[in-house]
């Protein structure tokens, strides 16, 4: 992070405040327009190969009491962020929420963290500055990398050079909040394997899958944090490694894959920077449930709704996904990654993954 | 038993003995014992009733003579008793009528009049006199002065209960300061426990009689209710009775008294809304009921072996072949042309055929020939020709009546009924028609098949019963009714002349038929000039006068009719202001402008108010039914020539569906206005709330924005006016040579057009006023008046010039303060 960037981010924020000022002066109703962040308002950007926001906008306007409160909160947040940048400090999203309690104006305080998070997203979109450049970070997600990768991380306490197999414990290398502070030095990796659950990641590490297949095992920890997606994107773009995603076989997990590959709906303004459209889905595919006769649970009503809503999600409107989702709706079943253990602890590393990766042309 | 019997037998004089103790009772004596019937059941109530009766009379008397009523009521404590004094400025009573009005029950001018008035029976005030004399033993003291007379008459009298006549103890002339009017003073056993009802009565009377001035002085309090209008209620006109509202006894009396000769004249003369046409309809209905209708049978179809031509020829003797044939042709043709034909229609057809043939052939067709022809054809039509001995299978062939009735019955009953069942039924019903030949008063029975509706129904019932019995099927009430109606519909009203009035007079059955006929005829609703509704404006004025509320609404319905009496329902609602916000709302009930203060629960008005879902109209109603809660007064006025009360004491309107419906509609009409008022108020409240919140947030936001950007605080008034969709009135001043140019700009940000009244008070004389503005000088100040109409999202400007150093003061009206932002 250069001071220039910091200065620019600050200027962007103050411009935003000035915009409100001018609106007041012109006798206009102060307002701020942001793209609507719903799945109905994302569209495919053919040039970038990612999903970005469409033309629909929602306006936060002082016309209503609610809108006015929102704008008041926005200007307080702008003040806070610009002060933070001036002092070159940083804070977490959660800290922002608690910090608002100290503001002198009750109306400006956030009611919950969702509200402050979405305010930061609004400001990101409107100012065109990412939240990392506002020096806002999420809580540590604790996502890790394990594999043949040598890198240098710029920490607040100086540079560290780390090999992600040799210099780390079984837990692996922890991805920092701003992966842009990392420089890749060397690697022996053939591909990236992003894994949803901790249990499966530990199984792969225990079975030595990373060593045997030269895989970089990225632990997604559920819905991946921005940093996890960003580093995955960088590993793909800068080192030319194919990306594969291994999750449970249920609708919620497909969304995890979706956010790695196409970007998430909430951060579609950053898709270009976070999404790896070339990422491939390994499984568990609905077809695998049949093929490997995996232990399964019946789909709940909310699962069915989620699947049906995915059929309408523009990100999933490909032949592959439509086929898989419809198959799953027919089956009425879902399976977890770890259900592969039904065929023995080594089945996943000895059979399932090699077979699938072979099919996909990764191996 | 036997012993008792024998005792009776032995003592033959007991009936006589009993008879000795039987005697007639005077009406006064009756009410003496039944005081509660007239509202004098307790001392508390007796006082209220006495006030009510006296005030009602006073109002009626003054209004009738076109005088604006001015009524004074005083209640004094007089030892163990209470003294009631009621004075009015009415026309006064003559020396002759005064004692009877106050000292005789059931004496009055109103009982027979169909006209809206407060009193009706002529019981009220004399009952009060009776009550006073019974409880205190003191006579009523009455003073009355008629307009223009030098002196007033003074009476002291009581009601002689034995013969219901006034008994005068003092009769003298006296002086009185009122130029005309009546004063009554009664002393009675009473108490003031019903003080609240008394106040209610007076106050409510003031509400519905905004043209009256009322004053009440009682031992503890003193009220004055001033007039809200000088407009007397419209004078009512007496109307004749409406045919739908009279009873048999009344009609019998009217028949005895009328000058008319004919029924037609009678109904046109004596009743309202009956003209020539309606009279005819009534007479037709009367004929149907009195004489019955004649069955119309279908003429024979071509395939039937009925030769009417031959029948006529056979019946006509010695008239020459040509004439006979022509006659037969004409008759047969006339019959065949008819859809159906009744006996009297056949008679008419034969008459005209005979006359036509007489003209053409010069042969005379006398009455006998005509009658023979009618009989021959009719018997053919009803299949009643005496059977030839040679006819082999007469018993098995169904009469042609059966086929006719079969079709009628088949159409009238549900399709589920078996053909065979209908056929059996038609067969039995036809037999009943055939039986008519044997019965009846005439020599050859009721050959004309003339039946009243009732007799027809009896036949249908009998035939249906037999069918049920023998064919083991059900032939229900509805089916019977439908069949009866279907047959009745094809039957023809007979042309017989109705009896003359003198024939009807005394004939109870025939008169009863006439009353039924009148009720069965559609007749226009009675005219409403006999009613004097208060009118919407005056209801509002009355409510405004007595209740300090925020909102008033009223509704007057069009007249309706119930039992021949026209009625009008009016409703009013007052809301908010100083009305008590706690507890249930108040319901004020009125009948013919008289407040009803007792028996609230038994009154149709209360029932209707309770049945309305007040939540729909923005009022609080616990449980969604019952009286609404909150600061609301609901008033209902029922005006009628005969308000149906639940009892003689006239406390509650009876539950008559027609009246209840109108009450509901009237209340709903007023309630709709209340709703839109409440909605508007609510939206203004929201607007105020929004303005309060935004009025806090936006300046804070502006302050913060200024802080972050490091600039001066921005001016946010314009933005706020826009946000609130407000009307912004803003003054701009600009130096202009040696003076100042002033412009007052109105910017309408609301979604509706706004009309404003802008007054700018300037301390120097304004020049070059823009169009539409006027200026008036007053004590060194100039009032610039300007009344622009600004449409939504538009602007208008007032411009003028003044010398330097002037002060301004802007005053804007015409826009709710919540919607207005004024910047001086």
From TrEMBL, chain A:
Enzyme class: isomerase
GO biological process, one term: DNA topological change
Binding site for Mg(2+): 196, 248
Domain Spo11/DNA topoisomerase VI subunit A N-terminal: 69-135
Superkingdom of this protein's organism: Archaea
Residues forming the catalytic site: 98
Domain Type II DNA topoisomerase VI subunit A all-beta, residue spans: 139-188
Catalytic activity entry: ATP-dependent breakage, passage and rejoining of double-stranded DNA
EC number: 5.6.2.2
InterPro entries named among the record's database cross-references: Spo11/TopoVI_A, Spo11/TopoVI_A_N, Spo11/TopoVI_A_sf, Topo_VI_alpha, TopoVI_A, TOPRIM_Topo6A/Spo11, WH-like_DNA-bd_sf
Gene3D superfamilies the UniProt entry points to: 3.40.1360.10, Winged helix-like DNA-binding domain superfamily/Winged helix DNA-binding domain
PROSITE patterns per record: TOPO_IIB (PS52041)
Oligomer and partners: Homodimer. Heterotetramer of two Top6A and two Top6B chains.
Name of the protein described by the UniProt record: Type 2 DNA topoisomerase 6 subunit A
UniProtKB/TrEMBL annotation, chain B:
Binding-site list for ATP: 57, 88, 109-110, 119-126, 650
GO biological process: DNA replication; DNA topological change
Keywords assigned by UniProt, alphabetized: ATP-binding, Coiled coil, DNA-binding, Isomerase, Nucleotide-binding, Topoisomerase
GO MF annotations, alphabetized: ATP binding; DNA binding; DNA topoisomerase type II (double strand cut, ATP-hydrolyzing) activity
CDD domains: TopoIIB_Trans
InterPro entries the UniProt entry points to: HATPase_C_sf (IPR036890), HATPase_dom (IPR003594), Ribosomal_Su5_D2-typ_SF (IPR020568), Ribsml_uS5_D2-typ_fold_subgr (IPR014721), Top6b_C (IPR040494), TopoVI_B (IPR005734), TopoVI_B_transducer (IPR015320)
Keyword Nuclease listed: no
E.C. numbers: 5.6.2.2
Coiled coil: 660-687
Keyword Coiled coil: yes
Catalytic reactions on record: ATP-dependent breakage, passage and rejoining of double-stranded DNA
SUPFAM superfamilies in the record: ATPase domain of HSP90 chaperone/DNA topoisomerase II/histidine kinase, Ribosomal protein S5 domain 2-like
A Pfam family matched in the record: Topo-VIb_trans
Domain Histidine kinase/HSP90-like ATPase: 42-192
Family: Belongs to the TOP6B family.
Quaternary structure (record): Homodimer. Heterotetramer of two Top6A and two Top6B chains.
UniProt-listed HAMAP family: Top6B
Functional summary from the UniProt entry: Relaxes both positive and negative superturns and exhibits a strong decatenase activity.
Alphabetical list of PANTHER family matching this protein: DNA TOPOISOMERASE 6 SUBUNIT B (PTHR48444:SF1)
Name this protein carries in UniProt: Type 2 DNA topoisomerase 6 subunit B
The species this protein was found in: Natrinema salsiterrestre
Lineage: Archaea, Methanobacteriati, Methanobacteriota, Stenosarchaea group, Halobacteria
Record gene name: top6B
